[in-house]
Design brief:
CATH superfamily of the largest domain: Cupredoxins -  blue copper proteins
Family: Belongs to the multicopper oxidase family.
CATH architecture of the largest domain: Sandwich
CATH topology of the largest domain: Immunoglobulin-like
Structural class: mainly beta
Enzyme class: oxidoreductase
Subcellular location: Secreted, Extracellular space, Apoplast
GO molecular function, one term: copper ion binding
CATH class of the largest domain: Mainly Beta
Domain Plastocyanin-like: 35-149, 161-316, 439-554
Strand content: 35-45%
Bound molecules: 2-acetamido-2-deoxy-beta-D-glucopyranose, copper (II) ion
Shape: globular
Number of helices: 6
């Protein structure tokens, strides 16, 4: 299946592919992803960025539920990379899931790796991205999964659809930004612009000419597939004067949720219906800003508050080009109440054709504190707080990425790579949402995993803390989960479970654990393999806010991990 890739590569210049759907399909879809350096200009800065097939954002993968996608990844770049299919379970096949040093060794420059993506229950919008260093900043694209042949959307078929990817742009090379931070132990420089489909939009320097435009016809309805591919920023998103109806998130349908505003964390996707009903006659405005701006809980810290914009433009012969597009205001950058209201409104569709299976009896309870920390440096010579080095942890274990990948070590029983004592509970309870005393702020590195028996039901209560500016969007590989509750303050194990939604909780692969609050997820471990769980804020990953689940094989043949493919990248 081809869709404009050849045309785009001809130009070899970080081109934006078509944002409207224009293709046919088959049961098995073959793609070739050539990862390479491509010159690209934004904010009047030109640099080489890593792209797939010269496109930024990268190519869209289209498939139907139940299809298989086979991607041959060819690394023509100068650095190690890996690719991940975000939100796909990869049932029994962790081998091509992608996280570097967790399930594979990287694809080295000049090497290839063919990755198989079997879509089983996923339907809606997912995405793919690099899972090595900060490569995700430019190596990402949509993965769009239509209903099975002969089945339909659980809503009226939209006239057309379009995809918008929220992201961040650095004028510097992103991996230089990462290396500098890791060397100094200090903060990662904030990005220079937030972007929509790689473009900063009208309000940022040198960007106006390239602002993304979405053309619509009066009276028609559209499906917007919204993806947050930012390295750090959570976003408020709206379209001036247009109502939005969320109908899906993270590759699962939701009950239609009418709203004027969407809140989306890094790693998440939202499927949103829009009715283009605002252009009535020659004197009506015909252009409306599509806008996104970050949410940041603590405005004391340095952050990028830039608004990024695209334009919704009605196809009409009356467009008054000198009239500026209409802009609707977005909530204040620290408006936590609006975040909580939006997030609290998401419900699984949970109808006859889209049943849900929320675990009711729980075998494994976990209470995981998500925290930013420091690791002390000799002579207090690092650039983090107290002369230490920034770290992140889950239950005070700051993940040390092993040299031998965990899947390899598990499958071939290589000892000494990890230990199986990831703690189910914090060793130390305190008021997590209060200022944390310095001695508790320090953490330690280790490579700990949590073993799960096949078919175990797991509940995790994530507890956010007062340290750091933002929520932690926790992402789980290998299975989606139900978000059964979310609230502020310290989790109260007597009162808070009474508020759980076990009837129609949203099914997600990434949950925004609130700063100073908690979120509870549930899932059933029926996917044997090695599954990474990490904050989707990339710098928090590099600081260790991650851990690994290993789900053991079950008894029956179809409850066992598949053998590795022949072309696993060697170390
Ligand atoms: C990678 O794939 C390309 C294109 O199919 C081929 O030309 C090249 O020889 C392969 N490289 C390796 C190391 O297998
Ligand atoms: C934008 O377009 C105008 C008109 O074509 C041109 O004069 C200007 O140089 C362009 N700006 C940039 C930054 O490319
Ligand atoms: C044109 O449409 C606007 C709404 O966009 C309405 O307020 C106005 O009355 C209409 N004008 C005419 C001449 O129909
Ligand atoms: C614009 O005008 C042309 C020529 O009169 C007509 O064919 C076309 O349908 C018009 N388009 C719209 C969106 O009104
Ligand atoms: C176009 O918009 C500008 C700015 O809003 C306004 O001054 C002008 O009168 C409009 N022209 C027409 C023909 O409507
Ligand atoms: C949000 O930030 C503004 C400006 O810094 C501040 O005045 C306000 O108190 C903050 N609101 C909350 C809820 O933190
Ligand atoms: C720490 O400070 C001591 C005394 O000032 C100095 O001798 C030593 O080299 C420093 N160590 C590092 C790692 O900077
Ligand atoms: C925890 O600290 C916060 C912030 O100081 C305070 O509002 C809250 O009451 C404390 N909770 C408990 C249980 O002490
Ligand atoms: C985390 O571990 C470090 C190192 O073992 C210890 O100093 C610190 O007190 C622990 N913090 C918490 C919150 O348990
Ligand atoms: C998984 O466990 C449930 C009970 O929690 C049981 O009903 C089901 O049969 C089990 N499935 C498998 C494949 O073992
Ligand atoms: C790239 O990956 C190989 C294989 O794991 C490793 O030996 C090498 O050190 C890596 N290169 C860099 C720059 O990390
Ligand atoms: C135009 C604008 O607001 N630019 C800001 C975007 O964000 C960077 C990083 O915080 C700021 O330095 C710019 O001033
Ligand atoms: Cu985080």
């Amino acid at each position: 299946m081809k869709f404009g890739t050849s045309l785009m590569t001809l130009f070899g210049f970080c081109m934006l592919g078509s944002i409207f759907f224009t293709t046919a399909w088959a049961k098995t879809h073959h793609h070739t992803f050539i990862v390479k350096e491509t010159p690209c200009t934004r904010l009047c800065h030109t640099k080489n960025i890593l792209t797939v097939n010269g496109q930024f954002p990268g190519p869209t993968i289209y498939a139907r539920k139940g299809d298989t996608v086979i991607v041959k990844v060819i690394n023509q770049g100068k650095k190690n990379i890996t690719l991940h299919w975000h939100g796909v379970d990869q049932l029994r096949n962790p081998w091509t899931d992608g996280p570097e040093h967790i399930t594979q060794c990287p694809i080295q420059p000049g090497a290839n790796f063919t990755q198989q993506i079997r879509l089983i229950h996923e339907e809606g919008t997912l995405w793919w991205h690099a899972h090595s260093d900060f490569d995700l900043a430019t190596v990402h694209g949509p993965l769009i999964i239509y209903p099975k042949q002969g089945t339909m959307y659980p809503f009226n078929k939209p006239h057309k659809e379009f995809t918008l990817i929220l992201g961040e742009w650095w004028n510097k090379d992103v991996n230089t930004v990462l290396d500098e931070a890791l060397q100094s132990g200090g903060e990662v420089e904030p990005s220079d612009a937030n972007t929509i489909n790689g473009q900063p939009g009208n309000f940022l320097p040198c960007s106006k000419n390239d602002t993304v435009k979405v053309h619509v016809e009066q009276g028609k309805s559209y499906l917007l597939r919204l993806i947050n591919a930012a390295l750090s920023n959570e976003f408020f998103f709206n379209i001036a004067n247009h109502h939005l109806t969320v109908v899906g998130t993270d590759g699962s349908y939701t009950k239609p949720y009418a709203t004027d505003l969407v809140f989306i964390s890094p790693g998440q996707t939202m499927d949103v219906l829009i009715k283009a009903n605002k252009f009535q006659n020659s004197s009506s405005p015909s252009r409306y800003y599509i806008a996104a701006r970050p949410y940041i809980g603590n405005t004391q810290l340095s952050y990028n508050a830039n608004m990024t914009t695209a334009i919704l433009e009605y196809e009409t012969n009356y467009t008054n080009i000198s009239a500026p597009p209409l802009l609707s205001s977005l909530p204040a950058i620290n408006d936590t109440d609006t975040v909580d209201i939006f997030t609290g409104g998401l419900r699984s569709l949970a109808d006859k054709n889209h049943p849900i299976d929320v675990p009711e009896t729980i075998n494994e309870h976990m209470y995981i504190v998500t925290s930013l920390n420091i690791i002390l440096c000799r002579n207090n010579s690092c650039k983090g707080p107290l002369g230490g080095r920034f770290a992140g942890s889950l239950n005070n274990v700051s993940f040390e990425t092993p040299q031998i990948n965990i899947l390899h070590a598990y499958y071939y029983s290589i000892p000494g790579v990890y230990t199986t004592d990831f703690p189910d509970y914090p060793s130390h309870y305190f008021n997590f949402t209060e200022y944390i005393p310095t001695d508790l702020y320090v953490t330690k590195k280790a490579t700990k995993v949590k073993m799960l028996k096949y078919n175990t039901t797991v509940e995790i209560v994530f507890q956010g803390t007062n340290i750091g500016p933002e929520n932690h969007p926790m992402h789980l590989h290998g299975q989606s989960f139900y978000v059964v509750g979310r609230g502020s303050g310290n989790f109260d194990k007597k009162k808070d479970p009474l508020t759980y939604n076990l009837v129609d909780p949203p099914r997600e692969n990434t949950v925004a654990v609130p700063k100073n609050g908690w979120a509870t997820i549930r899932f059933r471990a029926v996917n044997p393999g090695v599954w990474y769980m990490h904050c989707h804020v990339d710098r928090h990953v590099s600081w260790g806010m991650n851990m690994v689940f290993i789900t053991k094989n079950g008894k029956s043949a179809d409850a066992k991990m598949l053998p590795p493919p022949n072309d696993m990248p060697p170390c």
